[in-house]
Write a structure and sequence with these properties.
about 120 residues, mainly alpha, about 0% strand, globular
Length: about 120
C-alpha cells in the first residue's frame, strides 16, 4: 500500500466523523505534540505536526468561519515550525515555547469542539 492510499484512507475515516470529534482529534494531537516536545523523539513531533496540519485542512472548510480562522492560524504556525524545526529542537527555550503554545492550542481547540460540555 502506498503512502497516498494510506493518507486517502485516513482522510476518509477522519472526515466520516462529526466536526466535534474531528476537533477533539486535533486537540488531542496538539496535546501529544506538547508531550513529545519533552522527549528525545523529534520524529514523533514532526509526524504529529504533519498529521495535525492534515486534520486541520480536512476540517476548517466545514466549521464556523471564526473557528476555521483559528485552525488555519494554528496550521500556519505548525508549518512555520516544520520549516525551522531543527533549530527549534536544538534550542531549549524555543522548544519550551513550542510545547507551551501547543498546550494552549490544545485547550482552545478542545473548547471549540464542545466535547467537554457534552459530557456534563
Amino acid at each position: 500500500m502506498d503512502i497516498n492510499q494510506n493518507l486517502d484512507e485516513k482522510q476518509a475515516r477522519f472526515q466520516g466523523e462529526n466536526t466535534s470529534h474531528r476537533l477533539g482529534h486535533i486537540a488531542s494531537n496538539l496535546a501529544r505534540l506538547r508531550t513529545f516536545c519533552d522527549t528525545a523523539y523529534p520524529e514523533a513531533v514532526k509526524s504529529v505536526a504533519d498529521e495535525t496540519m492534515c486534520f486541520i485542512e480536512w476540517t476548517a472548510a466545514e466549521i464556523e468561519p471564526e473557528y476555521a480562522e483559528e485552525l488555519v492560524n494554528i496550521q500556519v504556525q505548525l508549518a512555520r515550525w516544520r520549516l525551522t524545526f531543527d533549530s527549534i529542537w536544538s534550542d531549549d527555550s524555543q522548544r519550551r515555547n513550542m510545547s507551551e503554545q501547543a498546550s494552549a492550542w490544545s485547550e482552545q481547540v478542545l473548547d471549540m469542539s464542545g466535547l467537554l460540555s457534552e459530557s456534563i
